[in-house]
Amino acid sequence: MPKATETPDTPVCLELSKVLADSYNLYLKTHGYHWNVRGPQFNSLHAMFMSQYTEMWTALDEIAERIRALGELAPMSGAAFGNLSSIKEGDATKSANEMLRELADGHKTLIATLKNALKVAEEASDDPTVDLLTVRLGSHEKHLWMISATLED
Where do the Ferritin/DPS domain residues begin and end (predicted)? Predict the structure, then answer.
């Protein structure tokens, strides 16, 4: 029987919950910046942000379902995500380059969260979680690369 809490007890589920919270907050920020980006790069950034938030949206379900498969409840409230996440909300008034820098920082933060969760999953010999986290790590490294390349002079 699952516990009625949004803060899991097991180390792997706790780390997966942090990954889910960081992923959700970065998804929201990316989607919001998709709506609000302005300037000469509008079209290309609007499309890149859409591609990235769409990929992240699908991953949220996979992460939450892995938590459930391990017998815990997935966090689902804004308060739970706020307590678990290291990624701050976006700001629609920022310039396109400021948005890009914030998203790059968000991916760096999430990559660190993923690496920590990966270590915990490896120590627990939880191969399905290791596989999931490895795929997510690759995706966020690719998103970071695309954003960083866009910021280059």
Answer: 16-152
